[in-house]
Structures are given as structure tokens and as C-alpha cells.
Design goal:
Order of helices and strands: EEEEEEEEEEEEEEEEEEEHEEEEEEEE
Organism: Halopelagius longus
Number of helices: 1
Structural class: mainly beta
Low-confidence stretches: none
Radius of gyration: 18 Å
Largest sheet: 5 strands, antiparallel
Protein name: Glycosyl hydrolase
Strand content: 35-45%
Number of strands: 27
Shape: globular
Helix content: under 10%
CATH topology: Methylamine Dehydrogenase, Chain H
InterPro entries: WD40/YVTN_repeat-like_dom_sf (IPR015943), Xyloglucanase_GH74 (IPR052025)
Biased composition (Basic and acidic residues): 157-173
CATH class: Mainly Beta
Region (Disordered): 157-185
CATH superfamily: YVTN repeat-like/Quinoprotein amine dehydrogenase
Number of domains: 1
């Protein structure tokens, strides 16, 4: 049985049960949600107004973790048992070694030479850690995206930091990795799409067929990491603003051009805010969350089915913030 943890801007939906007949409960109502992740019975959800909340009972009850500021903008399960990572605004990275209960900052991030240029356009006086992506083949190696200004790395678990490289995107919104693809990472950024095959030393930008290049979320297939799904829009304004919303899904296979996934059973285009994506454990299985609902594909994006859960009118104006799966 799959449980989906689906974070909208002001509500966390916990969707349980078979795809054909799920049940949904709502949690953390009214909080300003930013990010979430799941691992082995623990869910962590970062908020912009009340730090990080965690649950050990499949999302039934939540408690605030200690050692983090109010504005937690990213969260990721680490590569070691009980290890978690979190990012904040202003930009800082924290690590937990007790399954997310308590946290300590990993210093030195803002000592990097590029830090003076970091700035988040809606709040140009500050910036934040938008995404943390642990390397599944090396628990000490993490990609950390700063919104906006840099994609930085650590190779020693946050003891030291390596600054951005010239070919990396500057406004990375999400990244993904794959345990069967060592050295590879895929990035969805406001300034386009990028991928690396050498652990982030160099990046390439295959964009043939990608007509909308304000990219938000990226996922690769569980069985074939050369199959990539991407959500994107023309600009930030139409990606995030419900009154102007227009966004799309794209797919790429190997070295082929990007293909836009229109009329596949999932709404795209006018009225649709940018989706967040998550890969399932089975080949071809992905989930997508946006303001029109929660959707699933089992054939690599050829066709999508909406999960039959109650969808409040207010959800249609909320940007999705995160999506995590428990398929145990």
C-alpha cells in the first residue's frame, strides 16, 4: 500500500490506500509549508513560519523539532541511518543524527566566495537553501542549491564546502539522483535544465524541444534513469501565481529531444501551477502534484490517473511544495 505525503502551500495531505480507492487526511493546516521528505517511518516537513515538524506515526501526529530556526526551506533524508539534512532562510545547512529530533548547523556555507552574490528576487536582501540532494552512492557527498545564486557541494558531510562551478545553473529548484547511476544528477532550475555525469564537476544543458525553461521539479524512472520527467513554465510569474497560472510537463528519453506531455490525463497549460514530481519504486511509475490534484502514471507518463481524494476549492490556488512516497 502506498502512502503519499503531499504538501500544498498551507496544508499537508496524507493520502493512504490503494490507488483506486484512497483516503486522505489533512494536517499542519495554516502553516506555510516549504518542503518534506520521508524515510522508514519518519516524515519531516519544513515550514517557513514554524520550523520543522516531524511525524513517527505515518503522519497522524506532528511535533516540532529543536535546533532549527523558523524558516526551513528544504529537507532531505541522508545516506546514513537516522541522518537528515535541512536548509533554511537565510541560507544555512543543518544535520540531524537522531532521526530529525535535534539539529546542528554545518558551518562555513556563507564563507564561499560566491555568497556575496546570492539573492532571492522576491526578497532580494536574503536567500535560502532551496534543495538538498544527498548522493545515494556516497553519504558524505551532497548537492545544495541556493535560491538564487549557486549550486554548491560538500564531499565530507558538511565539514567543508565547494563553490559553484561555471557550467552549473544558478537558480536550481530541485535535483534528483539515482542509486544505479553513480556520478549522475539532474537539475530543474529557473534558468533551465541541467545534468551531470561526473558528480557535479561539469554540467550540460540539453534543451532541444524544451519550450518552457523555467523548470521546477525533476524525476527519473526507478528502472531506467535515462527516462526523465520535468515540470516547467514560461516564467516564475505563471509558474506560481494562480491568477496567471500556465505550466507543463515534459519527458525525455536518453538523448532524444524533450516531448511535451499534453492531453495525457493530467491537466497542463492554462490554470495549472507548476507540479512537483516523485518517482515510484516500480518501472514507469511517477506521481505528480499540482493545484488540480494528485496524479499517478504507471507507463512513464503516457497516461495519468487522478487519485480520487477530496480537493478543497482553496487547494486550486495553492502552489504544491513537496511530494514524498511510502511504498512499504
Amino acid at each position: 500500500m502506498t502512502t503519499c505525503y503531499a504538501a500544498l502551500r498551507n496544508a499537508l495531505l496524507v493520502v493512504r490506500g490503494p490507488t483506486a480507492d484512497p483516503t486522505a487526511t489533512t494536517h499542519l493546516d495554516g502553516h506555510d509549508l516549504e518542503a518534506l521528505d520521508f524515510r522508514e517511518g519518519t516524515v519531516c516537513c519544513g515550514t517557513f513560519d514554524d520550523g520543522l515538524h516531524r511525524s513517527e506515526d505515518d503522519g497522524e501526529t506532528w511535533t516540532r523539532a529543536s535546533g532549527l530556526p523558523d524558516s526551513v526551506t528544504s529537507v532531505a533524508a541522508g545516506g546514513r541511518p537516522d541522518e537528515w539534512w535541512a536548509g533554511t532562510e537565510p541560507s544555512a545547512v543543518y544535520r540531524s543524527d537522531d532521526d530529525g529530533r535535534t539539529w546542528e548547523e554545518r558551518p562555513g556555507l556563507t564563507d564561499l566566495s560566491s555568497a556575496s552574490s546570492w539573492s532571492f528576487p522576491p526578497r532580494p536582501h536574503t536567500h535560502h537553501v532551496r534543495w538538498i540532494e544527498p548522493d545515494p552512492n556516497d553519504p558524505d557527498h551532497l548537492y545544495v542549491s541556493i535560491e538564487a545564486g549557486a549550486l554548491v557541494r560538500t564531499r565530507d558531510g558538511g565539514e567543508t564546502w565547494e563553490d559553484r562551478v561555471p557550467s552549473a545553473r544558478r537558480d536550481n529548484h530541485s535535483l534528483t539522483t539515482h542509486p544505479d547511476a553513480p556520478g549522475r544528477a539532474w537539475a530543474a532550475a529557473g534558468d533551465g535544465y541541467a545534468e551531470t555525469t561526473d558528480g557535479g564537476e561539469t554540467w550540460v544543458h540539453p534543451q532541444d524541444g524544451l519550450d518552457h525553461r523555467y523548470c521546477w521539479s525533476v524525476a527519473v524512472d526507478a528502472a531506467d534513469p535515462s527516462l526523465v520527467l520535468l515540470s516547467s513554465a514560461r516564467s516564475a510569474r505563471v509558474a506560481h501565481n494562480a491568477d496567471r497560472a500556465e505550466s507543463y510537463l515534459y519527458r525525455r528519453r536518453g538523448d532524444d529531444a524533450w516531448e511535451r506531455l499534453d492531453e495525457r490525463g493530467i491537466p497542463t497549460g492554462e490554470g495549472v501551477l507548476r507540479a512537483v514530481l516523485a518517482r515510484g519504486e516500480e518501472a514507469g511509475t511517477f506521481y505528480a502534484l499540482h493545484n488540480r490534484g494528485l496524479y499517478r502514471t504507471a507507463d512513464g507518463g503516457d497516461s495519468w490517473t487522478r487519485l480520487d481524494v477530496s480537493w478543497a476549492d482553496a487547494f486550486e490556488r495553492q502552489t504544491p511544495r513537496g511530494l514524498a512516497l511510502d511504498e512499504s
